[in-house]
Amino acid sequence: MKLTIKDIAKIAGVSPATVSRVINKKNKGYMKKETEQKVLRIIKEFGYVPDARAKALRGLKTHLIGVIVPEALSCAYQEFIGTIVNVCYERGYGTLICSSENNAKRELAYVRVLESQRVDGIIIISERLKAQAVNDLINKGIPIVLVDEDIPGAEAPIVLTDYYEGALQATQYLIDLGHKRIAFIKGRHTTLSSQERFRGYIEALQRNSLDVEDRLIKAGDFTYKSGYEATETFLKESPDDFTAIFCSSDLMAFGAIRCIQERGKNVPTDYSVIGFDDIYFSAINNPSLTTVDVPFRKLTEIAIDMIKNWTEKGKEKRSICEAKLVVRRSCAKMVK
Amino acid sequence: MKLTIKDIAKIAGVSPATVSRVINKKNKGYMKKETEQKVLRIIKEFGYVPDARAKALRGLKTHLIGVIVPEALSCAYQEFIGTIVNVCYERGYGTLICSSENNAKRELAYVRVLESQRVDGIIIISERLKAQAVNDLINKGIPIVLVDEDIPGAEAPIVLTDYYEGALQATQYLIDLGHKRIAFIKGRHTTLSSQERFRGYIEALQRNSLDVEDRLIKAGDFTYKSGYEATETFLKESPDDFTAIFCSSDLMAFGAIRCIQERGKNVPTDYSVIGFDDIYFSAINNPSLTTVDVPFRKLTEIAIDMIKNWTEKGKEKRSICEAKLVVRRSCAKMVK
DNA sequence: CTGAAAGCGCTTACAG
DNA sequence: CTGAAAGCGCTTACAG
Q1: Which of A5, B61, B119, B289 has the least CB density, counted as fewest CB within 10 Å?
Q2: Structural domain of residue A76, as residue ranges?
């Protein structure tokens, strides 16, 4: 038995328009107190909940925000998703979570879903979406905010984290600890995140007049496994050529640490390891991980506010959040 | 410039009805091939995406599923959320993620949102929602599936994991390893999950004629911190009275392990530790964690299929999934 | 202070 | 094979 505004109107002996006004608190003060009370009582008694779709059809907001992330089962994005859900709730939005699973087709399918649902805005983390697709959406009046990845040519506001500066600090921290030969494991290098982290590493070495050595730089893809394997190679090829490893993600850092430990070496006394992201587990790991914090909540709040206060010229907004070094116990001073 | 079906109809020189038929592949074969082709071409050219809300208003499905979890920032639920998003995609649904953050008011607010959005079904994990609220929803025609927590009196199908059997196996595993004094740390004990895990532990001890000792049983709340603290107490009060700890969650197990390690003892040679959930990090932790796997994907698939194939009598369905012991390296044979 | 009527963007019998 | 018309559940000028 699904109730409509007409049913409530009939029961209350008023018109649907009046019920609507009560619900939306329109004509406040102009309405007879007793009419309002009666309608309110009946709504409550019968458990009537207005149809948001009908409302939205009339031009009102859907109060839904769509989110597209690259992966739903990776730690960092999971924390991001959780944070978005919470911030959306605080701002009065429901959250439609979509994961492209790094698949362009799937991503486009989700974009269509979000468009057809007429969400009030979309937060996108994507390294493969075309500028054209983003601009089409914006031209149709759907606010889009890019997070973490820039899409050249897209006329959408963007919220970034200063990964470059974060990586610079992390590397400098290792250098200050006395490390001169610092290995680096890249993330999925098609991403801006990975490129920026790498850029910060290089810059720090150069500022300190340290050599950038190709054999101390390996490709990875942000996963535990890739961190483990890259470290395995380092350890096999040049075990005495480095004293620290900077990993582009915490997960890779865990892989690196595990690999080192399994070979009977110690972190941080034999090798220092530093990560990036500061996921939940970094504080729990043994040794706890020194890493660079990505301010998920801040990013989310800015992105949602951009959607909430969307204006035509808002398209050009660019916001950059700070990434802070979090010192724990996976790095030690060089003694020799 | 937002397009409607009328715009497309006008451009194509046909009626909205015809456009609708093309989109929904109605009257297949009865339609002139060239009309169909033309309409399709124009839809594509102008990037027209039908309004799902208008469709739904006419009585069609929204293709949206709502999910209510207790916490959005806890590891196990994050994996659950990620899995649900993926399974929903596979089954053709968008996913509206809601987190009650263990707050009854917030949970009810979300229930209203999901109802107002007229989702095709709701998956609920809740220890506090009233049967009345669930039944109201069902009577309004919204399919509900309860997961993990039973709500007595609710006339909704339910999908459970056999935590009792899982805990029984885990405890038996420790006993078979030679452990006779096994400590236990409960989860948030208002949950069925925690109670069932505890019940399995007790049953295993009794089957093996081992004493159930109150001082070896402590309260916890599933978190890392509570696992750490309970272990701290065990170690202080009766360090020689137990040789293994069974924790009601992996997170608590990590806390236990960390606490033991910080006191200079070893896991598993001094104390064996076993967890529950098998979250991603369990395989990565050092030592890797022996635990009981909760089949998230299976649970999700069953729940979504129940929604998809909803019938009146489906309300009585009950499905119980198996929880399997996953042996890793945090438990060892007793030597003394 | 309140109601009747139009209309949001669709789909679907009903005609033809 | 296709169109005109009604209606899904709301809100909002427009009247009164």
Answers
A1: B61
A2: 64-156
